[in-house]
Design a protein that fits this description.
Radius of gyration: 18 Å
Structural class: alpha+beta
Order of helices and strands: HHEEEHEHEEH
Oligomer: single chain
Strand order of the largest sheet: 3-2-1-6-5-4
Number of strands: 6
Shape: globular
Helix content: 40-55%
Amino acid sequence: EVTEALARESATADVLRIISRSPASLAPALQAIADTCRRLCDADAARVHLLDGDDLVFANASVGNDRVRIQGIAGVRIPLSGNPYPSSRAVREQTAVHVDDLATIPGVNVMAVASGQRTVLATPLLRADGAAGAIVLMRGDVRPFSEREIELARGFADQAVIAIENARLFNELQATTEQLGALNVEL
């Protein structure tokens, strides 16, 4: 238990270090969060979905293994409304959605099951104004996530929100600085 706690603390510190080193670039932070969350929660794959209008977009943050094949899907959009997939539900309901066996959910994309996804945990990325997306953990076999793993995923979702907000604020500050610089040139 102590070894496990130390591993979690070390992983959290690593992710926070990546967030602080690349404030303008969201991709490295989301990649580190997805990879670390997958590893510590004993999932076969992880991916981050970001909210864009009425859709969830698969971010570049996708990691997997031979049991769950999710490579090559960055940029894919899935509708938020009317979609039974756990990530859409997690964002709509603003709560973690845990599905023991994805194959039992009516209307779930057959491709998801064909790619090896069976047990899925989707944890929303919650901000003050609502969900910004979700971290999705997948297992290739029917093996529910434990309460400890669900709480761990929530912690990584919080870190993803910090990275998203840091990148947004940094980019806004950079744009404002450029506008001020342009005004100085005109004066």
